Structure prediction request, 90 residues.
Amino acid sequence: MILGLDADLVAALKSQPVRDALEELVRRVVREELQAAPLLDQLLDAEQAAELLGMTRDAVLKAAQRGSLPAVRQGRRVRFRRSDLVGVRR
Prediction:
């Protein structure tokens, strides 16, 4: 018995059709995660960040200036990574 699994389950997991199905499932999940990754790395302007956070544009810019909200400078422009803002709510 492997990890408390009965013999029938172990045999089923070793069968080629089950292995193929699991492999396809893993490929699909990885593909979906990779497609979602660019959205998290997307840079937003202050207006977009404010909408996402439920804040005003000015409040977002002030929070970035204080350092309480992570921001990226692009010349004179301030941008916000979507991944940095996920989970931040005011």
